[in-house]
Amino acid sequence: MKVANEMKLILNSSSVNEGFARVAVAAFVSRLDPTLEEISDIKTAVSEAVTNCTVHAYPDGVGPVYITVTVIKDGRVRIKIRDVGVGIEDIERAREPLFTTGGEERAGLGFAVMESFCDDVRVRSKPGKGTCVTLIKTVGERDE
Amino acid sequence: MLRTESSPEVVTAWLSGEIDHHSAKEMRETIDREIERWRPALLILDFRDVSFMDSSGIGLVMGRYKNMSFIGGEVRVTNCSPCIYKVMKVAGLDRLAEITRQRSVSNK
């Protein structure tokens, strides 16, 4: 498959970077003429994935978060958010709505939000090695 | 960022800006201080000036709902933009609290 356009971003997992990460991805995707709702969906899903890196991947400190955004043909966007943190023991359980290891103030809905705001969400993880979340979203398709 | 107005009956909190994991903590603490101090029958969370929210905002509403239930009070969530409302719906928050949407605003 021919790759149309791509950008890569490496940032550390400090919570202060959550806002930058979602805005940077949204700015890159905005060239595809997405609707306001699609941009908001992407920002929200990216925010969830990056927050997972901040809260879960590096619980005792800060580590790198690698974001790759690829514009596949036909306005399909693939967003990979990868860390080299602690990994997830049980991915199925982690994706369950309301399940969280993040304490009382975390709703446990990060993956549920990603799933309902994207066309597809894939999670690969190895305990001790890290996690890679892939979000797929089609934007800018309008029947006008 | 947050502005509050409180009485023994109602605590109103106007949230503003972006609600994420980074910003939610301070908002939670401010609202909880007001709840603790006034023990109101009703907490109104106004989202009219919130431009972005992820599931941290859901946690914020759910946590305040819990605290208000504990003192026998209610929570009302007002002026949600379509995007904010969509996030609330994922969590089924509309079953916990009364949520009102923003009246349609003209395009800026």
Q: Which properties best describe this structure?
A:
heterodimer; A: 144 residues; alpha+beta; Heat Shock Protein 90; five-stranded antiparallel sheet; 4 helices; B: 108 residues; alpha/beta; Transcription Regulator spoIIAA; five-stranded mixed sheet; 3 helices
Quick synopsis:
Chain A is an alpha+beta fold. Chain A contains four helices and five strands.
What report would you give on this structure?
- The complex is a heterodimer of chains A (144) and B (108).
- Chain A is globular and about 40 Å long.
- A five-stranded antiparallel sheet of chain A has the order 1-2-3-5-4, covered by helices on one side.
- Chain A has helices at residues 18-29, 36-57, 91-95, 110-117; strands spanning 5-12, 64-72, 76-83, 120-126, 130-138.
- Chain A is of the alpha+beta class and 144 residues long.
- Chain A has four helices and five strands, in the order E-H-H-E-E-H-H-E-E.
- Chain A has a single domain, classed as Histidine kinase-like ATPase, C-terminal domain (Heat Shock Protein 90).
- Helix content of chain A is 33%, strand content 28%.
- The longest helix of chain A has 22 residues, at 36-57.
- In chain A, a hairpin with a 3-residue loop joins strand 2 (64-72) and strand 3.
- Chain B is α/β, with parallel strands linked by helices and 108 residues long.
- Chain B has a single domain (2-101), classed as STAS domain (Transcription Regulator spoIIAA, 2-Layer Sandwich), CATH 3.30.750.
- Chain B is built from three helices and five strands, in the order E-E-H-E-H-E-H-E.
- Chain B has helices spanning 21-38, 55-70, 82-90, and strands spanning 2-6, 10-19, 42-53, 74-80, 98-101.
- Chain B has a five-stranded mixed sheet, covered by helices on one side.
- In chain B, helix 1 packs parallel to helix 2.
- Chain B is globular, with a radius of gyration of 13 Å.
- The mean pLDDT of chain B is 91.
